[in-house]
Amino acid sequence: MRYDLIIFDNDGVLVDSEPISNTILSGYLTELGHPTSYEESLRDYMGAAVHRVHDVIQERTGQALPVDFDETLHARIFAAFERELQPVAGATDVLGKLVADGVAYCVASSGTHERIRVGHRRTGLDEWFEDEWVFSSEDVGRGKPAPDLFLHAAERMGVAPERCVVVEDSRLGIQAARAAGMDVYGFTAMTPAERLEGANGYFDDMGQLLGLLG
Do 152 and 168 meet the contact criterion of CB atoms below 8 Å apart? Predict the structure, then answer.
């Protein structure tokens, strides 16, 4: 293995949550009078922390979202997770191989700690992550595309940035990894490679990942 630490994004990389969360987000924004299609939600918000939604709506419309927006959005998403969420196909196989080979890994997500844990409990991925291996944009001042979250994860895991590699499926995540001075591979199962410009390589099946990292 060429790297000392594998940093996984969560939504869309470990748990198949992006279709669920963006369907709910686009529907909720439309309900609030900000018409948003599913495709627009993916384009504008995939890979971002929820504060980006507030920033974009404020910038485009001059209007603030309701004070309970985050709470309502998360409640709807968590309820859907309990009904529908599945792990990304092949994710547990990759984690099992990393454990067998003694390679350190962690997750660094734009989602809240609660969102990460709800998803991991629902999919059984909580068995693969100690609490100290889970990092959220809540832990830093700026989320992706700023490098802060990935640099924070590397520091806490005790690995230099240049010895880390990030696995991402969003444009904002690719930008954040590059800004952190880390290699990054783009997962294209849902996001076309042309929207993940700047990655070191691309793959559309988790079974391909370890071959890229070796």
Answer: no
pTM of the predicted model as reported, rounded to 2 decimal places: 0.89
Q: Is 59 left (phi over 0), alpha (psi -120 to 50) or beta?
A: alpha
Q: Which residues contact 122 (CB under 8 A, 6 or more apart)?
A: 15, 81, 82, 85
Q: 150-180 burial string, b = 16+ CB within 10 Å, else e?
A: bbbbbeebebebeebbbbbbbbbbbbbbbeb
Alpha-carbon span 156 to 214, nearest angstrom:
24
Distance, in Å, from the CA atom of 142 to the CA atom of 203, rounded to the nearest integer, reads: 28
Each residue's pLDDT tens digit, 118-144: 999 999 999 999 999 999 999 998 889
DSSP H helical ranges for 85-190: 91-101, 113-123, 148-157, 171-179
Integer CA distances (angstroms), 157 to 125, 131, 134, in order = 19, 12, 10
